[in-house]
């Protein structure tokens, strides 16, 4: 009998993981009372059963939870079904008809494929010599170009571009309205910045703010042109309320981006815990 020779092949990605990686958590902790858009159901977690409420004969006990929340609370990704314009969704589908039956079958959160892609952090205030972008400031294409040049990290087709404004430092402020920024306004891209991203054919774009894009002082969510341009016109997913301060402090601007939305059938969005992974080597 002739012995069979077995050749062991190591996947290059697995090899990189085995050599050691650094993981940056880009998601926010979910907790009762956290700042959120007033347009969505709040986060609520309760314990219907606590340890000791029911004890087995052998002394063991288990606790359980009840979770109630909107899909656009905390760090989350917007499905293409989330926004319509003039009665139409991305691709031209009739928005009213698409919601028949109480779910969006074609463009719901379950249709967002898990993402393992090149990620780029665009640390705009750092590139402009600021600690944070001012309240209500619109990040321009010139600002984005300056950030790319400062970091040496061009944004290309299929990438996930994450825009840091510095506004995320307000997420844990005791005044929960500070991060929402209705009165002050919130920095972010506007229509021109959204077109800058669309021109580079990114797969998804994210930010450390509650609505991704710039909110004018006193206007709240009354006008969201970047949502229209990116979600409806170009089919680019949006990730909101990210934690980008840690990775920015580490000076990491290019990484493997990992995101897996919950396959919520027909939902307009999904809570997520995005990760940035870089090799220690």
UniProtKB/TrEMBL annotation:
Q: Which GO terms describe its molecular function?
A: arylformamidase activity
| A biological process term (GO) from this entry | L-tryptophan catabolic process to kynurenine
Q: Which Pfam families match?
A: Cyclase
- InterPro entries for the chain: KFase/CYL (IPR007325), KFase_sf (IPR037175)
Give the highest taxon in the source lineage.
Bacteria
Specify the protein name: Cyclase
Organism, by scientific name, is Polymorphospora rubra
